[in-house]
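Here is one chain, start to finish.
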Amino acid sequence: MSEGIHSKAVRRSLNYIERNLTEAITLKEISVHSKFSSHHFYRIFYAAVGKTVADYVRRRRLAKAAAELIYTNKRILDIAVEYHFHSQEAFSRAFKKVYRITPGQYRTYSRNLIKGEIKMITEQALKGWTVTGLNGEDYEVTVDKSEVHMGKASARLQSIKARENGFVTLMQIFSAEAYLGKRLKLSAFVKPQHINGWAGLWMRIDAENGEMLKFDNMQSRPIKGSEDWNQYNVILDIPKESSAIAFGILLSGAGKVWVDQFRFEVVDAKVPTTDEGVEDSLPPEPVNLDFEE
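Its structure:
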């Protein structure tokens, strides 16, 4: 129960942060929205996101600033002030710590590469990932450097034709050996835009013979419409007979979705699985066999 309450509190706080990146943000203000004390919420947020509130806000502001360096003509000083850095020098120091180059160099180099970026994305940017789906020609999957959560790039899945019966997924598969007998939490930051169908993170656990042991694709709690970046989770038990773990993000129907910062974390048994209750949802016996009810 507490895990669900904590998760909702973190999501509320992330929504608040996204709406106020150009405003003053304090832990006290965010904790008020979360309905927890500042001290308690600090620990909840760090456990869920892997960063302190202050570090998370700073990294999100730097990511937004990086996009503005490339795609706007704003002065570096104006961008620094907009995202609450006290001076251009403070902004440059923080920016260089994350991106390894100064804001001015980042703007120059990125703009010089922009024309060749599409070719580079097609050939290299999805290294390690597989794209599959139904009516795949109706979708585009690529790396996006203009809309990121943190860092320099995110993945974008989008429909290029309005069709209801198609879907696309960006996925990976890896050995389950390191997680046998454990409870595994998959999380990622997702930003949906104009999704008329649905999107969701997913994880599937397979036995060596290919039999599916566990699965959750968020279809019971779908991501729809348009929202700011937020964190979503899938939590499954990894049976001892597991052989492979597949995971990814799925977009069904029309719309667009960005995903960034996939993360795996082993959690204890107190954290409920997101597929909980699926097996118990079957009725104990058949019903309405004569269609009279």
